[in-house]
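fyi for ur records
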Amino acid sequence: MEKEVIIIIADDDQGHATLIEKNLKRAGIMNAIVHFENGEDVLNFLFKTGEGEFRKLGVSYLLLLDIRMPRIDGMDVLRIIKQDQELVKMPVIIITTTDEPREIEMCHKLGCNSYITKPIDYDKFVEVIKQLGLYLKIIQCPNLNGVYSND
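which gave:
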């Protein structure tokens, strides 16, 4: 990624989130990373609601989103993000253990940019994340400049 893009990891499995972050860095991705363990916290961050840290205007974000999460699952997070006139621009990559064809199709219909199935095997998981890092080096992400839906 030529310009600074903040990577949001939304995964309730801390081990998976740590593996993703560590192996993105091994692949040369040194971007800032924000981690959330549930869908509600991701939406609070993006829509500037609740407590905690919020996204900033004029910054580019990319979301690595797990489907199976507590409070609000990834499918609902994706649906809500892609219905917002500003957040629709943010790239969303589903990275999950689910390889159910109907869920894959639904995520693409809802607007995900890519769908990656997490391999169960550790070495294969590491390799998938390294390849994701190579992908992230070449994509361009737009700044999020518009007003919040809740403002």
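The CA atoms of residues 21 and 131 lie 13 Å apart. thats all i got for now
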